[in-house]
Amino acid sequence: MNRLCILYIFIFLLIPYLSCTLPDDSTIAIVNVNVVPMDSERILTDKTVLIENGIIRAIGKSDQITIPTKAISINGAGKYLMPGLAEMHAHIPTPLETLPDEWDKEAFHKWDENVLFLYVATGFTTVRNMYGDPMHLELRKRVERGELIGPRIWTSGPPISGNTVQTVEQAREIPAEQKAAGYDLIKILPGLKREVYEALYEAAKEADFWYAGHVSAEVGVPRALETGYLTIDHLDGYIEIIIADDADDLPASMFFGLTLIDYVDETKIKEAAQLTKESGVWNVPTQVLIEFMLSGKDPEEMARWHEMKYVPRPLLEHWKHVTRNFQSWPDYSQERVDRFIDIRRQLIKALNDEGAGILLGADTPQWWVVPGFALYHELRSYVESGLTPYEALKTGTTNVARFLEITDKAGTIEQGKWADMVLLSGNPLDDIANVEKVEGVIVRGTWLSKEEIEARLGEIAEMYGE
Ligand SMILES: [Zn+2]
């Protein structure tokens, strides 16, 4: 036997030893943790959760689970482990060329990658992107290959509106085209003519490729419900169907029905929710987007909210500008805005009570809604609308898995499911504000500690800071 052979044998003998003693970041054990499984409203105390190659391999009493020596071991004592959350109405940034010419493009350095990180850093391990572009298909691949830290991405194709799709012929092409391009759904913006919508509906049925988003005025919520929208977003079109029967001389509906708010009949809210339940159509309320845009607050003060340091300066200036414009709008009055927000919250509560599906979404990063952080506000607004913290958390976990038809892989913490989870220092079922207390995140089985998260957040703040 020559020396080389002996060396090989020696190395082979070492391999099993090396592979079971060196830490291996694909095996993670979270030890002594309280699990918030989200399969019902309960806490499983003193558990160890074992993760291998991105999958939850075992959950058991801490003294009954054997932790492989190669595992990264995380002390979960006093902490709460819940499924990763989802932003179901995201706007992952589009290419910089699509920004207004006068904006300083350099100020948006790595904005797309940083947005993806902000979601993960705040516990959001799934997003549905609602303003698709070919770049998002690439971005998704980079995340899947592990080149970027990001959530799992579902994405619409490039959105369609009354401006971009004006004819029945154009509408007929869209479902098959976007399906072939690799998108997951079609995003509808306002303004579709009724016949264009009907052509889109027929083509969607044929291609079995569906749409979500705004409800055009000529379509209306009842028809949208009948024709199987995947989701109605922003509660668009709902104010229009709860107007008092004797109301006449209605003004034009603007900004999701704000201009109609004086004509609303609150007793019709329940009926609207029942109609939604019967149809099986889901809603993504994006309530905080509306609340923030219409907030009577001084935009300079809003710009000082702690999460605004992660936003490129020109974008923040734009948000201030838009808010000032809103506040100087003739139809704007604090009284009307307060009633509008209250009616929308009653709608959210009624949808939940009737069993119509709600999905968590905040339209991030649009005006004042920063990825992740705005969704904490969104969850709080659901609780303030009358949902329990558990019901609110379902909108971002189990409801999402049901909607995406991935209940075998996601939504709850169970053996065999994806290891997309967030570790918190407080119980989110007791107080919804505890979702903000992130101690670490696991996405696709990769552990990000609080220290790593804070370091990268610091870099982002530095990148965009003044
Ligand atoms: Zn949007």
Describe this structure in words.
The chain has 466 residues and is α/β, with parallel strands linked by helices. The chain has a single domain, classed as TIM Barrel, CATH 3.20.20.140. The chain has 15 helices and 15 strands. The protein has helices at 3-21, 111-121, 134-144, 168-181, 194-207, 220-226, 269-279, 287-293, 299-302, 313-327, 334-354, 373-385, 389-396, 398-404, 450-464, and strands at 27-35, 44-52, 55-61, 72-75, 80-83, 85-90, 124-129, 152-155, 186-188, 211-213, 231-233, 282-284, 421-424, 438-443, 446-449. Strands 1, 2, 3, 4, 5, 13, 14 and 15 form an eight-stranded mixed beta sheet that branches. Strand 7 (124-129), helix 3 and strand 8 form a beta-alpha-beta unit. The protein is globular and about 75 Å long. Residues 7-23 have low confidence and may be disordered. Zinc ion (ZN) binds next to loops.
**Number of E-state strands:** 15
CATH fold annotation:
TIM Barrel
Number of helices: 15
Low-confidence stretches: 7-23
- Determine the structural class based on helices, strands and strand pairing: alpha/beta
Overall CATH class: Alpha Beta
Mean pLDDT: 94
- Helix % is 25-40%
Q: Biggest sheet, open or closed, and with what strands and sense?
A: 8 strands, mixed
**Domain count:** 1
Question: What is the ordering of alpha helices and beta strands?
Answer: HEEEEEEHEHEHEHEHEHEHHHHHHHEEEH
Task: Set out the fold topology.
Layout: H1 3-21, E1 27-35, E2 44-52, E3 55-61, E4 72-75, E5 80-83, E6 85-90, H2 111-121, E7 124-129, H3 134-144, E8 152-155, H4 168-181, E9 186-188, H5 194-207, E10 211-213, H6 220-226, E11 231-233, H7 269-279, E12 282-284, H8 287-293, H9 299-302, H10 313-327, H11 334-354, H12 373-385, H13 389-396, H14 398-404, E13 421-424, E14 438-443, E15 446-449, H15 450-464
The chain binds zinc ion.
